[in-house]
Amino acid sequence: MGDKEISNSFNPSKLENVNIQSKFMEKYPITKSDLEELKREIEIHSKDEISKEQNFEFLEKFQESLMNNNKTEANKYLKWIEKGLNSTASILTIRAALGL
Q1: pLDDT 10s per residue in the chain (100 long)?
Q2: CB atoms < 10 A from the CB of 14, how many?
Q3: CA-CA distances (angstroms) from residue 34 to 11, 19, 85, 91, 96?
């Protein structure tokens, strides 16, 4: 997985979430494959570059929410990601795994 860099936008940033992922994947029935698929969908199906950057930030917040055992907040971030995508198959998979 590794770090993700977001560039060519108004706010370049770097996502470092490998440790977060492994910790909450122990608590919830979400696989590494589910998260990778969601990242791929964000990369490919975001409506525009701004949506893509926001969606990656929302994904990081989603993972942090799960680490804090806050499924309500995690669901909020999934909804926001869904609004910025043209495809949502991986979101449906993750919601089902979390019982949302």
Answers
A1: 444 554 554 455 555 555 555 565 667 778 888 889 999 999 988 888 998 999 999 999 999 998 899 999 999 999 999 888 876 777 777 877 888 7
A2: 9
A3: 27, 16, 16, 9, 11
Q: How far apart (Å, rounded) are the C-alpha atoms in residues 38 and 25?
A: 15
How many whole angstroms from its chain centre is CA 31? 13
| Tokens 């043209």 -> residue | 86
- Other CB atoms closer than 10 Å to residue 15's CB: what's the count? 18
pTM, entire model: 0.69
Question: What's the CA gap between 34 and 25, in Å, rounded?
Answer: 10
Structure token pair of residue 52 = 């893509």
